[in-house]
């Protein structure tokens, strides 16, 4: 396996974990939790899901730029020579990272405080904000995947 192939494999796996996890959470877990669990149990479930999933997102957040910049240099001999779609993907990664950090550092603590205080309406509000940002990140992630898979067309 070449160094490029190894970097590419890690890059794709990190993207699949992040975007696939958001897709599963948004399209499968959320509707199931809403239909089967009362607010207190649903909020506790989401706090635990985020705790576990965000560990993997941190891995992706580290792997994606390291592998991406490595491939950037190997394939295009530097940042300036890379085609526009590569720059767009890098920019979208930064936006996704900013949204993730907002969830991790601002909204998740808000959700945990509400759960600890058994303030279910406040917890629901916090979870709603998180859900909105996850939805935005999911759309951005799907856009990046579509862009990456269509790259031979550019």
Automatic annotation (TrEMBL):
This is Copper resistance protein D domain-containing protein. Coiled coil: none annotated. GO terms for cellular component: membrane. InterPro entries: Cu-R_CopD_dom. Residues 48-149 form the Copper resistance protein D domain. The chain crosses the membrane at residues 6-32, 53-73, 85-109, 130-150. Keywords: Membrane, Transmembrane, Transmembrane helix.
């Amino acid at each position: 396996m070449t160094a490029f192939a190894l970097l590419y494999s890690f890059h794709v796996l990190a993207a699949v974990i992040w975007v696939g996890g958001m897709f599963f959470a948004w399209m499968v877990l959320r509707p199931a939790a809403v239909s089967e669990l009362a607010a207190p149990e649903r909020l506790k479930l989401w706090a635990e899901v985020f705790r576990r999933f965000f560990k993997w997102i941190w891995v992706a957040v580290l792997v994606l730029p390291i592998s991406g910049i490595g491939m950037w240099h190997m394939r295009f001999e530097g940042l300036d020579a890379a085609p526009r779609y590569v720059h767009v993907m890098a920019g979208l990664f930064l936006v996704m990272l900013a949204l993730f950090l907002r969830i991790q550092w601002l909204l998740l603590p808000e959700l945990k405080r509400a759960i600890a205080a058994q303030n279910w309406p406040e917890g629901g509000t916090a979870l709603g904000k998180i859900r909105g940002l996850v939805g935005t990140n999911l759309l951005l992630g799907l856009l990046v995947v579509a862009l990456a898979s269509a790259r031979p067309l550019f």
